[in-house]
Each structure stands twice: as C-alpha cells, then as structure tokens.
C-alpha cells in the first residue's frame, strides 16, 4: 500500500530504495500486491484450520511463508522474492563494515515493529518441538525452569533482535560517514533494550510476589522500584523515538536558539551586540512539504506520538492485556498502521531532500541537506541502484 500511495504521489520509490526496475511499464507495487495476496490467503487458510482444530500447529503459517519465499520456481514473482531474500541476508549480516543501503534501513525499521511477532514465533516453535501448548512454557507452576529462566531469557533475546540489527546498522553508518547523528540514532535503539529487560524482570517479580509475598533479597530492588525503573525507561524510549521520528526521520522539526543581534552603524561597520543571558529555543517547521496539505503532517505527528506510547507498552511482556482476546492483535495492528504512516513520511522526507539537493545552492531554506542517508552519485540527486544479479 505504501508503494501504491507513493507511486500515485509521483514519488520515485524505486530510485530511493536503490532498486533495479526491469520493466518500467509495470509499477513496483503490482508484483508486491500479488505476493501479499498469496501470503494473505495462506494466513487465512491456516487461521481457519487452527480455529477448527485446536491441535493444529500454529507455526504452519510461518513455514508456509518461508516455503513461498524460497520457492525455486520462476513463478510467483521470483525477482521480488530473490531481491527480498538478499535484503534479509544484508540485514542479518554481522559485518559492520558492509555498506548499509536505504532499503535495508527501511526493512530493519519495519522489523522493529514485528519484534513481538518474533517472540510469538519463538513460542510457536517451542510448541511444535516439545508438543505442549504455550501454557506449558509460560504459566505452568510445575515447570519452573522453562517459566522462570529459559523462556524469559530467550524471548528477551529474540524480541531485542530487530533493535540490535538497527544498532548494528547505525554503527556501520557511523564507521562509513563519521557523522555523529548515527551515534544518537544508535542510542535510540539501545534505549528500547532496558524496556524489554525490566519488563521481563517485573513479570518474574510478580511471580515471586504471588508465590512468596516478596522478591528475593539478592535482587536489591523492590517490586515498586522495578516498576519505577520500567516507567522511566518506557518514557525515555517513547519520547526519544517520537522526537527522532519527527525531527530526524521525517525532518519536519528543528530547534535553533537566539543568535546575537547584528546592527549596522552609519559607518557601515558591523557591530555585534552582547549576547542575551537566556537564549530562547525556536522550533522551525520544514517549509518544503511535498504533500500540499500541511494538515496531513500534523495528523501524522499526532498518531505517531499516540501510537509510540502504545507500542512501548506492548514491548512489556508483564502487562497482562495479552490475556484479553484480541487485545494483542489490536495493538500489533495499530503498530502496523503507525509504521505504515512512518514509511510514507520517511520516504517523503528523503524524496524532498533529493529533489532540493539537485537545485542550485540557496534554492532551499531550513532544509538540513547534510542529513542525506546516502550521498547522491549524480547531479540528479538520486542514488545508484544496488548491484543485482539476475535471479
């Protein structure tokens, strides 16, 4: 859907993502729609089977999607499937000296929205391998090894994996460009890890309190202290991520401070007045908006703020809204909607920077051209496509 909207808005997503388009008469979104339709059909069929037969394996949809992705035949949009597989290889590579492409950044950011889906996939894999339902691992009081140690530890690692991938990409970008903003971006993804960790600790603390009335003394932290730490890290992660979205990813807002006033005397000499003791921060809204109605940007900022807070709570496994039927699905659906909005305005921001970068110097105002994710290789302001072999 993102590709369709960007295409209708005349934003060249193919060039931004550095992809080769062999058939210029076929938009990129058409083969993606075909693959999405097939995957949706697989999910619906497996969901119906799971509802009819409770003992059906919940991991079957994941296996079916993997089989579709790795299908060796030339049918079912092989070029797009191979391209996506190569992107996954680059994203999951541990080589911090490899180049990071803009399409890889978009994919890795999308994976962070599916962090809890990866945790669910891990539980589904355990169900398939052991042959018990999920309560055997999560709620069984006679299975303390799995419930208190093995499963919480592994779920934390699996859930944190997308954020570690983005952290690796930020480090790789800093090594390549030496720009400090990549370090601050890395801190944003690092700030999500304490949320996951303290959430798991609080869940375990709740189990101890329910069974013995208190947490172990060697923890050195009481249950209410753990909760306060969790609230603190949720707030830091939510606000940091929200500000980064609108200020850096979307490039909509920037803050400057009062500069010393400049006055010109009758002798045409520049006189610098003493600086003020208290400088006032000034918030600037980007003037170069590709979409004609500014209200869309305001709505996007509002939804991003609201859903950022919601998703930070979703990272917390100790919140038992997951026991309410449909609540976990609703929150993941809202996060998909937020990510859908984020991708549109992330691409819009990059497209505006590319367009204005091709104009003569001084043709743009208050647009941070130094924040290009990749330097253009030509005067057109566009990036060179990723080298691809024929599938």
Number of helices: 14
Oligomer kind: single chain
* Spatial separation of the terminal alpha carbons: 25 Å
| Mean of residue pLDDT values | 77
Pfam families: EXS
Subcellular location: Membrane
Membrane topology: Multi-pass membrane protein
Domain EXS: 146-381
Please tell me about this protein's structure.
- The protein has helices at 2-8, 13-16, 29-52, 60-69, 78-92, 102-112, 115-130, 135-138, 144-177, 181-190, 192-212, 223-249, 295-314, 327-357, and strands at residues 253-257, 262-264, 270-272, 281-285.
- It is mainly alpha-helical and 391 residues long.
- It has 2 domains: 30-92, no CATH class; 93-371, no CATH class.
- It has a two-stranded antiparallel sheet with strand order 1-4. A two-stranded antiparallel sheet has the order 2-3.
- Helix 6 packs antiparallel against helix 9 (144-177).
- The longest helix has 34 residues, at 144-177.
- The two termini are 25 Å apart.
- The model is unreliable at 262-269, 369-373 and 376-382 (pLDDT under 50).
Looking at this protein, list some descriptive labels.
391 residues; mainly alpha; 2 domains; 14 helices; 4 strands; 60% helix; 4% strand
């Amino acid at each position: 859907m993102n590709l369709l909207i960007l295409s209708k808005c005349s934003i060249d997503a193919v060039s931004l993502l550095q992809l080769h388009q062999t058939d210029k008469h076929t938009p990129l979104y058409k083969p993606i729609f075909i693959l999405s339709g097939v995957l949706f059909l697989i999910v619906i069929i497996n969901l119906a089977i799971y509802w009819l037969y409770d003992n059906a394996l919940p991991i079957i949809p994941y296996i079916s999607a993997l089989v579709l992705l790795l299908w060796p035949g030339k049918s079912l949009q092989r070029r797009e499937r191979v391209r996506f597989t190569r992107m996954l290889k680059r994203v999951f590579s541990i080589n911090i000296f490899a180049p990071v492409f803009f399409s890889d950044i978009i994919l890795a950011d999308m994976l962070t929205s599916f962090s809890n889906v990866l945790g669910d996939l891990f539980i589904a894999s355990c169900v398939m391998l052991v042959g018990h339902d999920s309560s055997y691992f999560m709620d069984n009081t006679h299975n303390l090894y799995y419930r208190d140690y093995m499963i919480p530890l592994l779920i934390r690692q699996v859930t944190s994996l997308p954020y570690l991938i983005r952290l690796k990409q930020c480090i790789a970008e800093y090594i390549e460009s030496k720009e400090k903003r990549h370090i601050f971006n890395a801190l944003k993804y690092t700030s999500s890890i304490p949320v996951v960790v303290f959430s798991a600790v609080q869940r375990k603390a709740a189990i101890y309190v329910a069974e013995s009335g208190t947490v172990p003394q060697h923890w050195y932290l009481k249950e209410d202290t753990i909760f306060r730490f969790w609230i603190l890290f949720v707030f830091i992660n939510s606000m940091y991520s929200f500000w980064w979205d609108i200020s850096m990813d979307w490039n909509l807002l920037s803050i400057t401070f009062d500069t010393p006033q400049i006055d010109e005397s009758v002798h045409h000499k520049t006189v610098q007045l003493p600086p003020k003791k208290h400088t006032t921060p000034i918030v600037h809204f980007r003037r170069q908006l590709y979409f004609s109605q500014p209200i869309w940007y305001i709505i996007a900022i509002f939804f991003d703020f609201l859903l950022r807070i919601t998703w930070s709570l979703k990272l917390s496994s100790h919140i038992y809204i997951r026991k309410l039927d449909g609540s976990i699905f609703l929150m993941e659906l809202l996060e998909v909607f937020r990510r859908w909005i984020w991708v549109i305005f992330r691409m819009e921001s990059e497209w505006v920077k590319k367009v204005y970068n091709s104009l003569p110097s001084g043709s743009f105002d208050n647009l941070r051209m130094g924040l290009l994710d990749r330097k253009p290789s030509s005067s057109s302001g566009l990036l060179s496509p990723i080298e691809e072999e024929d599938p």
